[in-house]
Amino acid sequence: MLGRLKKTGQDLVSADAWKARIVFWSGAVLVGLLATLFAWSTEVANELFIRHAHAYPALPFVLSPLGLLLVVWLTRRYVPGASGSGIPQAIAALSMTEHGSRSRLLSFRIAFAKIGLCLLGILSGASIGREGPTVHVGAAVMFSLGRFAHFPHHYMDRGLILAGGAAGIAAAFNTPLAGILFAIEEMARTFEERTSGTLLTAVFLAGITAVALQGNYVYFGTNAATLAPAQVLLPILVCGVLGGALGGLFSHTLVLTSRRLSRLSGHHPYVVALACGLTIAAIGVLTQGDTFGTGYHEARRIITGQGELGGAYPLLKMIATWVSYVSGIPGGIFAPSLATGAGLGNSIAGYLVGYPAGAVIILGMVGYFAGVVQTPITAFVIVSEMTDNNGLLLPLMATAFLAYATSRIFCPEPIYQALARGFLPGRAGA
């Protein structure tokens, strides 16, 4: 006990300890600022494309393929480390032992390029989200600040990456608890004692910064729907099994096709980009624009009961997200997966007559999302925080774990862990 108190006192007066704290604190605030600017810019880009797509129905058939072509060219030419979601890069960097290898995936250049390229992708109508890229941005910013501060690499790198990624999730979704859990459950798969205080502080500061700028908003709006005890079992079973199966199939398909198409993309990347752009345009026009972009507004419309989507929306949104990812552009699958899950829940609610539709929609969302990312604790916490619904916490938890178990049948390896292997030294990035 005496030794621990002595060490604490030394830390309070140590110049190196205070340098570390200042870097972490300033980095977390910067992550919060960037996440907020990214969120605002994404909304503008999403609205701009959808508005013009409605006004000029033929426009997506020009803008989507050419836009994806430009994004793929810029990515391959200047920042190949910025491709894809960004979460696999952060996970790959955590598993690396060489500082130089991590620097190829995490840098200020990649962080700012990631934001710009994702915005171009959204301006092209791609079904991508900003949340995964914000994790990449957060990890890259914190890691880069650590480089400039000349910290001992073996001690600080992992903590910087974890804290940055968690701060990115917290600021992107306004869900601080989910940010912490995602860093533990997905990015680290362990929780080191000496990282815990750093991670918690970074999440707090990034979240406070984002809230100060954006307000204490609820991501998908408030949904207070609940289930009576006698109504709980059937929605959990249906949403857990069906959501987990579809989420697992999506993840397995995305990982498998990403690996197989990487050879084709290596020889004909721009042909793949053009084909994917045309497919995105066709699906978007078929759904009257519902599958373009992040899916945020569509999910919010369903959850708050302000509108309906067609029965084919979940499947078509799933396909649009898959096509967007395999095209090779930077962009995440978090928000599109949540939108797909909301659509799935909406479709299931149509068959479960007599059950509260709002509750079934949220269970469908958590079931599909947990099936895709295979992080059940993060899934039910993030959905609960995003919908401000605490009355469904236990059903959400049960659905998430059932979906996770079902998903593992179809996709034995978690999607981000599988994709991360493509960014390890000696492997081509996916």
Account of the 3D structure:
This protein is mostly helical. The protein has 19 helices and no strands. It has helices at residues 2-13, 15-55, 60-78, 87-95, 99-103, 108-123, 131-148, 153-173, 176-188, 193-214, 233-267, 269-286, 296-303, 313-326, 334-351, 357-373, 376-387, 393-410, 415-420. Helix 2 packs across helix 10 (193-214) and helix 16 runs antiparallel to helix 17 (376-387).
Helical proportion? over 70%
Overall strand count? 0
- Treating each run of at least 4 consecutive H or I residues as one helix, how many helices? 19
What best-fitting shape do the alpha-carbon axes yield?
Answer: globular
CATH structural class of the largest domain: Mainly Alpha
How would you classify the helix and strand content by structural class? mainly alpha
CATH topology of the largest domain: Clc chloride channel
Mean pLDDT: 81
User: Which architecture of the largest domain does the CATH hierarchy give at level 2?
Assistant: Orthogonal Bundle
Largest sheet: none
- pLDDT < 50 stretches: 1-11
CA-CA gap between termini: 49 Å
What are the defining features of this structure?
430 residues; mainly alpha; Clc chloride channel; 2 domains; disordered N terminus
